[in-house]
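User: I'm designing a mutation panel for diguanylate cyclase and want to avoid disrupting the core. Could you give me a predicted structure to guide residue selection? Please restate the sequence first so the numbering is unambiguous.

Assistant: Good idea. Sequence first, for numbering, then the predicted structure tokens:
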Amino acid sequence: MTLLHVPTMLFVLTALLLLYAGYFGLAWWMDRSRVYNAFLMAPMGVGAVAVALFALRGHISDLLSIVISNALVLLACGLLLTALRLFDGRRALALPLLAGALVWLVACSIPAFYGSLISRVAAMSLMMSIYMLAMAREVMRNHRQEPLHSRKPLAFVMIVHAIVFAIRIPLMWNHPLADKGGLLSTPWISAIVFELLLHWVAFALLLVSLSKERAEADLRKRAETDALTGLLDRRAFLEKLQSVFGNASATSSFVLFDLDHFKSINDRSGHLAGDRVLVAFSRILESHTPEGAILGRIGGEEFGCFFPGVDRDEAAEVADRVRLTLVETDILVGDKLLRPTVSSGVSDIEEAGASFEGLMLLADRRLYAAKSAGRNRVIWMDDPAPARDLEALAIATVRPVAV
């Protein structure tokens, strides 16, 4: 490892950091909504200056090569931690952003600390390890909600870097460093700097990969989402339904909703009114369905909802709560007050014979029956139900509501 020329590696690292700063700066300029790219650009630039100052140790003042360079390194770590917080939608915090650099500057103002190389290296190693572990934790906090493939490798790289910095502390006692210009010629320093170079190459590449995965996921979500309602579109809904259907229990249910007289709403009140009704119904559907339900807009005014592990009677109750809420919802468009209604048909896997097509066809048949029976109701079985059951589920014929 002594063949590795430390100043050369440091200047190579400086050039790489400047390139990374340019990349993230361009990414931010192209899409200002991704503020985290600006916070990734800044630490790369700050880090490049810090590494260059450290590489000039012995050729420039100690104030620049020791105090300022290390303060900039800690500031860069604070900026990176902030960028990772912003990436996952959390707010920036001043304390982790500035704490490391401020602690270092205050410590260096104490003569006993500044005069001890061991104290300085131990303090920097400890703070760098803390920052790296904090960044690894930040990367993994949203892994379940957004399982991007680059999260785990990125966290691993930062944990390894934290361990390397922690190892520097015992190395100081077993293999003391030469202060001043001889610092960079200390044998084990070349191994540390080589790891530093590899770390930043891997770290930046994984950051690029993480950002790319997020962009691809956003595009995929847009492609699968109905632009008006925010629910899954027909293709995405059917694909997701088919993907879970094979493992769903026999009691899992499917509900097909269709807004009543929707064409009349468009014709009489305009397409804006129709859009308002669709959006209002979508929000009602989302608010009443249990966690794990799969929702989608599968036609103009037709919506589907799959309830894994929910039996047909319970699904019918949910469908009727949706129906009642819509009836009671006033939708104002200009000077027109709309009170739309919805009909629905319910089926489950057990009666459909574990057939995906059968499940949907049975729900569609019952939806047609609900329409034929006067609309604004839920049908969940083929045979007429006793009147008390209809009343219990609140799906008996209701008075017409003007739209």
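For picking mutation sites, this is relevant: The chain has two domains: 6-224, 234-392. Residues 384-403 have pLDDT under 50 and may be disordered.
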